[in-house]
Amino acid sequence: MSSASIEHEDHSDVCRSIRLSGRLDMIGTEAITMKFASLSAAKGRRVIVDLREVTFLASVAIREIINNAKAVARRGGRLVLLVGDNDLVAKTLETTGVGTIVPMFATEREALEAAVA
Predict the structure, then answer these.
(1) Cα 24 from chain centroid?
(2) Can you give the pLDDT at residue 81?
(3) Could you give the percent of the chain with pLDDT greater than 90?
(4) What is the pTM of this model?
(5) Is the predicted pLDDT of residue 48 greater than 60, yes or no?
(6) In angstroms, rounded to a whole number, what is the distance separating the alpha carbons of residues 81 and 108?
């Protein structure tokens, strides 16, 4: 049984939110990796990765986020992170420097505006 889950919602033909939740440790990340890549794979896609319900974020999950962000960018899209008030995740991402690679936002509105800009 996986300790993580993944869901998505389309805002438009080109903008999608991908909601990750639970423990993104090695087992949890492995459980969502293929679906995460598949959901963000489309030319010109704008992706908001919602991390507000993530309870643990391991380095393997951070690597998946960065890999997906780079893949989306190569296809002409953009990936942004929605961390909300999840201080644990925000501090982990800031400490590891992910915020300098993938933009992070506290509100859905900010993330959506940045994704489609």
Answers:
(1) 12
(2) 98
(3) 88
(4) 0.94
(5) yes
(6) 10
Give me 26's structure tokens: 């090695």
Round to whole Å and give the CA distance between 6 and 21: 7
Instruction: Quote the mean pLDDT of the chain.
Output: 94
Contact 24, 63 (CB under 8 A): no
- Three-state secondary structure readout of the chain: CCCEEEEEEECCCCEEEEEEEEEECHHHHHHHHHHHHHHHCCCCCEEEEEEEEEEEECHHHHHHHHHHHHHHHHCCCEEEEECCCCHHHHHHHHHHCHHHCCCEECCHHHHHHHHHC
As a whole number, mean pLDDT of residues 93-117 equals: 94
- Among all chains, which residue has been given the structure tokens 């933009």? 103
Q: Which residues contact 63 (CB under 8 A, 6 or more apart)?
A: none
- Could you give the domains of the chain? 5-116 (3.30.750.24)
Q: Rounded to the nearest 10 degrees, what angle do helices 59-74 and 26-40 cross at?
A: 10
